[in-house]
Specification:
The complex is a heterodimer of chains A (104) and B (182). Chain A is an all-alpha fold and 104 residues long. Chain A has one domain (2-102). In chain A, 85% of the residues lie in helices and 0% in strands. The longest helix of chain A is centred in the first third of the chain and has 32 residues, at 2-33. Chain A is elongated, with a radius of gyration of 18 Å. Chain B has two domains: 2-62, no CATH class; 70-177, no CATH class. Chain B contains six helices and three strands. Chain B has a three-stranded antiparallel beta sheet with strand order 1-3-2. In chain B, a hairpin with a 2-residue loop joins strand 2 and strand 3 (150-155). Chain B is globular and about 55 Å long. The chains are: A mainly alpha (104), B mainly alpha (182). Chain B: The chain crosses the membrane at residues 21-40. Chain B: InterPro entries: Cation_antiport_E (IPR002758). Chain B: This is Sodium:proton antiporter.
Chain lengths: 104, 182
């Protein structure tokens, strides 16, 4: 029974880790392919936040103690908050410093 | 009344001088910062943690952040469920576009007008600030700044229906913060 549970948890954990990696890669591809800073910010903010949100529960399932889950959740919330704020500030800075000709 | 005044000031960021020192909110933010440090560090490294906690508390005080409302915590699960769903949609949407060989994007700058019915509530500036930050995690939208009642929004695809998702986020945020519709 414990062996089964271990197997299920390991499979679930690796599925989450692979899904998380997929979104990080997709975000990076978007960063390289999208045409300007604003589109790139879309890719980095959304895909990476979701990627981290999948990686962290995947890691938590492999952690030795359950209190790690709280720590990892907190890390995710902090990264999500700082990511959303930083993204907005970068967009604002780019918008304020870009050439007026791009600004209809 | 004190609470309402400090809320207005914090969100607008206009008046940071003088005024009554709000010790209650200072203690709240101090305790919250200490809790975050204890969780992140596993209860160690207080020689580094203490200055960080003091700095965080001083910043909260300088920005005149009101004490966190405990009722918000009770409303968090509902908001979080909505938020996780849209975060998933946003991440999937941008991943799909980035990986698609034809790169299906049609970016543009536009504006989003915040709903009239929330504007009279004293917590409205806070709603606007959070809306401006969190709209960046919805599918296809990104905010650069706000002016009066409008957010400057960059959309990844003009054809996409982003307005209804943004409205939904605004309603959910209003419910979370306790902003009353007039």
């Amino acid at each position: 029974m414990t062996a089964w549970l271990d197997l299920v948890l390991t499979l679930l954990s690796w599925s989450l880790l692979l899904c998380g990696a997929f979104f990080f890669i997709a975000g990076t591809v978007g960063l390289l392919r999208f045409p300007d800073i604003y589109c790139r910010l879309h890719a980095v903010t959304k895909a990476d936040t979701l990627g981290l949100g999948l990686l962290l529960p995947g890691l938590a399932l492999q952690a030795d103690s359950p209190d790690r889950l709280g720590t990892l959740l907190l890390v995710w919330l902090l990264v999500m908050g700082s990511g959303a704020t930083a993204c907005q500030m970068l967009a604002r800075y780019a918008r304020e410093t870009e050439a007026p000709v791009d600004d209809p | 009344m004190q609470r309402q005044r400090s809320t207005k000031h914090s969100a607008a960021g206009a008046d940071r001088s003088g005024g009554v020192i709000n010790w209650k909110s200072g203690i709240h933010w101090g305790l919250l910062s200490a809790l975050v440090w204890a969780l992140l560090s596993g209860g160690s490294g207080w020689y580094l943690g203490l200055p960080v906690i003091l700095a965080a508390t001083a910043t909260a005080h300088w920005l005149r952040l009101p004490a966190p409302d405990p009722r918000v915590v009770l409303r968090l699960p509902r908001f979080f469920a909505f938020y996780l769903r849209t975060l998933w949609q946003g991440g999937w949407d941008v991943a799909r576009r980035a990986l698609s060989p034809s790169l299906p994007i049609d970016p543009a700058w536009t504006t989003y007008e915040l709903q009239r019915r929330y504007r009279d509530d004293p917590l409205y500036p806070r709603l606007r600030l959070l809306m401006s930050a969190l709209i960046g995690l919805l599918p296809g939208t990104l905010s650069a700044r706000y002016q009066a009642h409008e957010l400057q929004v960059h959309v990844l695809d003009q054809q996409q229906d982003w307005v209804s998702t943004a409205r939904r986020l605004e309603d959910e945020l209003a419910r979370l913060l306790g902003v009353k519709a007039s």
